[in-house]
Amino acid sequence: MVKIPTDTDTIVNISGGFECLAALWYAVKKGYKPVGLALYNPNAKGKFADAELKAAQKQANYFNVPLVVDNKSSLPQETNINNYSVLQGQSAIAMLIQGNRQINFKWHIWGANADDSFRQRLQLRYPLRAMMAGRSRSLDLHGLQPHHVIQAPVSLFPFEWMTKSEVVSLLMKDNPSLLDLVWTCSGDFKDDIPCGVCTKCLEWKYAKHVAKKSVYKVQEGKHEI
Fold first, then answer.
1. Residue by residue, what is the 3-state secondary structure of 66-85?
2. Reported pTM
């Protein structure tokens, strides 16, 4: 069992992908004390689950952040065309917070960019309500006390006003080797090497390409103010 330091104040979901890496980078740069939360379910994701977990562990190790793995589900699932990752993520976050009341979780940081932040906001709305209803022991949130809201973690979306390639460009400026920690693929990969031709691989390739070529788009303000 991973021991969570008592000074932990932030939760970052880590799947091995770029958005999660960006969120973890932001948390560390801000001086927060994050714990990583990885979702592992081979019943739904098959070999993708192992590849994602390996990448998530690499990212956590790089930033010296403890990684908690939610791998308790044994539900039979013969397809990954579902919302399981969303449901598992919501329940794991709630259990992590509710089960560790000695830790003052202040932030939950998401790496969503301008293309997908709204979807994540919708996914978060009702789990947070359910969590607060549990804390207040009330079915109706009119039973909430002020301290329930004050103590509730706040979800942060630091990149929701930026495109994916813009966030890639940002991390490249700080440390280009960070991009080597990213794993993303939805195709027929082998030996943990992304296939390079699926939708996810092409999206990642295009984002990096645009970020590298963005220097040609900068016409004014080349020097930092």
1. CEEEECCCCCCCCCCCCCHH
2. 0.87
